[in-house]
């Protein structure tokens, strides 16, 4: 009886402290994944689509790819791998679009700094100078600054409008400029123009260096894509023949396909890792 009471007491204590010992990680991880996907959409310039649209595109791409491969080969493992590849396709598209936008914007941010310096030197206040970029900034960046101008006119709160501007821009260099403006607004002083000039020169130098390095290392990505895709093209041609389909439909054929998929993914990741440049992280974004 004493042993039973002791066991019940221990179980009660364990259940009482279980929320702290074993927090709901699955929910937190699911929220983090949704947050990463939404952030990827914003940085790719497609934040207005919503997560449901992207998730629907992922599911549709996976089903279409798996269905096509199943109809052509009738090999379940190939259909499964095609479904996984199809599900990754929209995410890879978003990442490629994000990289392309970052590269294009990287060339434009020095002009934004120069426009801010010119506006401040002619006597405009800092909020008016930033709002004026809605009509004078490079065309790609005008919509975000136009939204900032409307938001500032409606609320009159400069820092809150800056926070929404950071979300609309979703750019690491844009974060640096916004935080510099926020600091200048809070602290004051006469060094803002010098800071913006230094930031403009730094961004120009970084963009030139990155452009040169990326041009020289572009062959690495091309070789990685060719090395990862070519074996699967050959495999697709083989399994479309009856004798090839029967050979790869066996247990040994399935094992070869699975090992090949793992090797392709690992080799592709290694090659991309070798040729990848570290991207600047966002500031408080």
TrEMBL record:
Subcellular location per the Swiss-Prot or TrEMBL entry: Cell membrane
GO CC terms in record: plasma membrane
InterPro entries registered for this protein in UniProt: T2SS_GspF_dom
UniProt entry tagged with the keyword Aminoacyl-tRNA synthetase: no
UniProt superkingdom: Bacteria
Principal location: membrane
Membrane topology, record value: Multi-pass membrane protein
UniProt KW Coiled coil keyword: no
UniProt keyword annotations, A-Z: Cell membrane, Membrane, Transmembrane, Transmembrane helix
Pfam families: T2SSF
Regions crossing the membrane: 6-23, 44-71, 77-96, 219-241, 253-272
Residue ranges of domain Type II secretion system protein GspF in the record: 113-239
Record-linked PANTHER family: INTEGRAL MEMBRANE PROTEIN-RELATED (PTHR35007), PILUS ASSEMBLY PROTEIN (PTHR35007:SF1)
Protein name: Tight adherence protein B
Organism for this UniProt entry: Microbacterium saperdae
Classification lineage: Bacteria, Bacillati, Actinomycetota, Actinomycetes, Micrococcales
